[in-house]
Amino acid sequence: MMSLKLKAKRSKKGLSGAVTALILVIASVIIALVVVGFAFGLFGALGGTPTVTQVGTGILEFVHINNATGNYYCYKAILTLKSTGNVQIVSASIVGTSVTATGYSTQTLTTGINTVTIDFPTTGFNPQPGATYQISIGLSDGTTVQVPVTQIYVG
Fold this sequence. Notes:
Elements: H1 2-11, H2 17-39, E1 52-54, E2 58-67, E3 70-83, E4 87-94, E5 108-109, E6 112-120, E7 132-139, E8 144-152
Parallel strand pairs: 2-8
Antiparallel strand pairs: 1-3, 2-3, 3-6, 4-5, 4-7, 7-8
């Protein structure tokens, strides 16, 4: 009876130590690749907040606008922004002043390069030609991007 039990135990088959080790190595490599991918932003498109950066320096010009909404003057900021995902501009202001944008509504940044124009009123702000100013842009994901613009004289 005793020899029959020993024989039964010996005849059971299982994974060998080499196969188990190979499976653990493969799983470890896959986990390491996923961690490295997230660490270096390779999977940024899968979720998370987009990153928005400026390309070059924007310009700020004094313009006359005559359209269906009226005839007025304003300072128009023209910026090139690069985004890693879709996000909407929800606010814009000139840093160090109380001037907030009037013309940014419904501007959505898509993945890639975007040209953005933002209108600022002429009251409360008197930029000097050639001077550089910072614009703070609020995004729908709660982040804020600071971008420089240089006042140009158009005469």
